[in-house]
Amino acid sequence: MDKEVSCSELFSRMYKSLSGHQVKPVKMPIILEPSKAMRLFDNALPLGMDVIDNRLIAMNGFLCPDGILHACRYQCHQALMIEIGFQSEAQMEKRGWIKLSNMTWFVTGRHCAIEATTNQLKAIELWYRRNELDLEHFEEVCQPNVSE
């Protein structure tokens, strides 16, 4: 004999069965939002030219081992790479360059391991500070990756 169960009773049973399970809290990722100055700078960048960003407000580009940020527009990394004199991002990474894309620093490298220099880490930290971005995000991204 089947007994009909109301929706509220069904949800009550489901909640009771689920509430016994222990679920680890998940840390939400930190989402970086560009400042107005960053957006204006990005929109004013010329296409295919090497622009050195001394103010450290670019959202995209490459950071050389000396800590100098070469800025480009979104999806214009290849043109910048060629303008700088490289044939591939893998070649740049082998020489210690770090890619910045959509406000994400690829500190560990995508094609090979990169050991960030002290100058690069200082520049990245200054980038976070100048743009008033969450320093906790910087620590998560950069702290385990230090060399001279």
Automatic annotation (TrEMBL):
<protein>
    <submittedName>
        <fullName>Uncharacterized protein</fullName>
    </submittedName>
</protein>
